[in-house]
Amino acid sequence: MSGGSRLDPWVDSYASRAHAMRASEIRALFAVASRPEVVSLAGGMPFVQALPLDMLTETAQRVLVERGAQALQYGSGQGDVTLREQILEVTGEVGVTAHPDDIIVTTGSQMALDLVTRVFCDPGDVVLVEAPSYVGALGVFQAYECEVVHVAMDDEGLIPAALAEAIATTRAAGKRVKMIYTIPSFHNPAGVTQGPARRAEILAIAQSAGIVILEDDPYGLLGFEGEPPRALRADDGEAVIYLGSFSKTIASGLRVGWAVAPHGVREKLVLAAEAAVLCPSNYAQLTVSEYLATQPWREQIKTFREVYRERRDALLESLQALMPEGTRWTIPAGGFYSWLTLPEGLDATAMLPRAVANLVAYVPGTGFYSNGEGRQNLRLSYCYPEPERIREGVRRLAQVIEGELELTQTFGTSHMLGDVSGTSVPSPDLQ
Amino acid sequence: MSGGSRLDPWVDSYASRAHAMRASEIRALFAVASRPEVVSLAGGMPFVQALPLDMLTETAQRVLVERGAQALQYGSGQGDVTLREQILEVTGEVGVTAHPDDIIVTTGSQMALDLVTRVFCDPGDVVLVEAPSYVGALGVFQAYECEVVHVAMDDEGLIPAALAEAIATTRAAGKRVKMIYTIPSFHNPAGVTQGPARRAEILAIAQSAGIVILEDDPYGLLGFEGEPPRALRADDGEAVIYLGSFSKTIASGLRVGWAVAPHGVREKLVLAAEAAVLCPSNYAQLTVSEYLATQPWREQIKTFREVYRERRDALLESLQALMPEGTRWTIPAGGFYSWLTLPEGLDATAMLPRAVANLVAYVPGTGFYSNGEGRQNLRLSYCYPEPERIREGVRRLAQVIEGELELTQTFGTSHMLGDVSGTSVPSPDLQ
Question: Going by fewer Cβ within 10 Å, which terminus of chain B is more open, N or C?
């Protein structure tokens, strides 16, 4: 009746878009990361253990005791109105002001990504994204059969001239550019941040081209020095849709994110959300709302920053001390990730089985491209393991890279030794 | 910057599907129902007040204290494996056996509806649904630009001969039927239930036509007499995708539902779910899991049944006592709804403003059709108000219908007095 069979009698009944759905790296990451002997520098799991659990338990308890009937009931498709007001306090930290009506609460900001794409993109429409870009966003664009065009970055993120050129080239080819998707602050996976001047340039290009910017900002409050970077949305409420999340500032298991959108777009997003899930969870929303109202959330974000800064330092110090010559990496000023470039001739995808055999995991760069690029790159996450484990992980990774370099010097590129498709995920026997 | 403007500069940038997104009745329902002086027989809100709140508070507390780091973290895209095993205990009540791998946990079963449609339906594909059908399902099919074909029902639900004919007619017109969407038990909105023989006939028709059945079963355990009806899925694990939900048996605010699907379909659903929300909330999932493991959930469902049976009886008795001649309604043996047919010449959509003015609300029948039918019908929900309020609501409704009848006898049909588009929703000034 079920379970074993691999034959799929329905394969001819699927929608066209279903054929574009392929195994994402995200699923494999969880499995790789879960073996305790492996140091996982792969997954982007926030270190939720830094939250005071008793305080959160109290918060949840108070929600059920005082507002149980509401917490357990259906709510508005747009999200709880008090929470939407509180979200504006949080977005105020990156300069985003709006009316609570302009906000829609979603099941994580991933859902906001999905809804925005659903509202804007027909199959074949072009979305411009950074090179590399967030794997979960690429998955959404793929699911809606968009064409993804990668735009070059440097140490200050998306390059304005490259963006302008990509718009011109794509339009010259007769294609329609629907969105510019960008993570301006503490980029996933690249670990870089757009400076203020660059943000202004990018915004001006989008405005002049009449293309909406989808600004994804899950890490904006997790910078290691100075004030949080000012969001693109802070300077234009019509050209920018801003996505935020409590996954990294409170807890990812709550699945509470949001979008701030221009009025007409927000109306469409609410309709799309009602079709998708009816309404977000009141249970999770009221827990977040009560937490924001009664707990020192800004202090807690400072604690998270300290935790992640210490881990970033552990990563950078040990990379500096241990990586073979020819290896390069970005210096993140916030967030969870550094983007590493292997010495010439090495292939991060082909190397992964040997890394896992040496008990360290990362995400190969190809997962962050939709065009097979990124073979020489990998993403290192420092968010979850303790600093000592990070150092041990880097030590193991350095061994693997050195081993690859020796093999390459003897036999040619690692690519020839063990080719793995650019879009594949770690196979089950590696996990 | 935001808030007031009604001009939408992005209207030309939307996807084709966005033009099919229109205001659903669901949103308006919440607003109508929220005015305390209105007796709302409109919304389908479960009576969560029947849950012992202290017991649920304890459950949530135990989850955070004992498994806080897991509850607050990202989880698997398919859902928590322990919860999936427990879900099989619940589906066992309606005869559904499966492997935990065949289950995907979703943000309410609405999300499962969305994902199944995403995997199966291209624009223009036909979905066969009951006449009338669940408004939230129609919203999903519309969002994916499906063509919805309604199939006649009687007091035993979907009529097999009409189903076979609809398949033949649609195919003869050169269209592709992708799914049969049905709510076999305690139908929303029709309040009827398919008998065992009829289920076998419907299943045989789908099998012979090679069309997947999407079986939506949120109310299956909420029957008022005897054993829960055996699900269609219990007799075929390949032809049927089964959707279940904890919204009515525990609490809708948790947003935890599921699909049981054939292996290949389930794999696609997980990929679609990862793109849509990454993963369902661990916080909500572990709360449900702990509740199922430690609380007398079968007893609690019995309590819900008693609550809803008493309310159903209050509704039926007062309908019987108060409704003018020529009014008919279905006799639900479970679930939340009765479907009422007005006397000849009356129009439920046109009548709604006068009903709300008389402080009673319902959902006009047109919301449950995609083709403008249902003007003579309305849905009455007895799930949420106390029995005394239900009786008062029916009394108010009877007054309105009688008033309409008098007007009709004097001036002609109510349709002529106040036409409202078949797909419109109550306007804000009525709420």
Answer: N
